[in-house]
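Review session, final week

We close the course with one last complete record, chosen because it touches almost every idea we covered. It is Transcriptional regulator, TetR family, a protein from Treponema berlinense with 218 residues. Go through it on your own first, then we will talk.
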Amino acid sequence: MPAEKITHEKIIHAVLDCAFIKSVGGTSLADIAGKLGIKKASLYNHYESREAMLDDTVHFCGEYLKKTTLIPSEMTATAQKYTAEAVLKGIVHRWIKINEKEPLLQIYSFIESEKYFSPEAAAISKESRAKILNQTIIALNSLIEAKKISPATKKTVSIHAEIFTNMLFSLLDKYIIEKKNYIRSNPQSGDGELFSALPFEPDFTRIDPLLEEFCKIL
């Protein structure tokens, strides 16, 4: 049976998988090659250096994150149909579940760690958060128009959206830390399909009370 063709995208996914487990700085070319089942020297057939590989990974992550969304496309109809609490809980539950899957889990972790060292990663992180903030503003305005929350000034909506956005990223960070701690304690869990069978999911019983309290200030 012929060996599977190695592509830039497969190398990038290997970089993301290894970096998630060992950190970007702790990931070597040997780790990446081992993940792909090839010799380290073979990576130079695709990239001239480790730095070029990481730069391409950052670019890939940025393009992937541009395609992700927080709110449903039918936000106006959703706001009309459900309570504000149900809408906001639905948004948070959906967002965390999307981000816990491959490759978004690894992409988020990679960009958030690399933003301190790579200007492009920092720009991607900033753009991603700005997009989530803007979509949160859309969601809150839709709930105001549907008379599900009290009317507010543009400034107040922006403040509430920023609180909500910060909460989203804080919850995701906490979940990823828990997942990484589990993987460190059970290294065999990283074999095969990365983390697909980990024995836990986001604990929404801890998240939902925060959302309920947030809705009280709207």
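Two points worth writing down before the exam:
The first helix runs from residue 8 to 22.
Confidence is low (pLDDT under 50) at residues 191-199.
Good luck, everyone.
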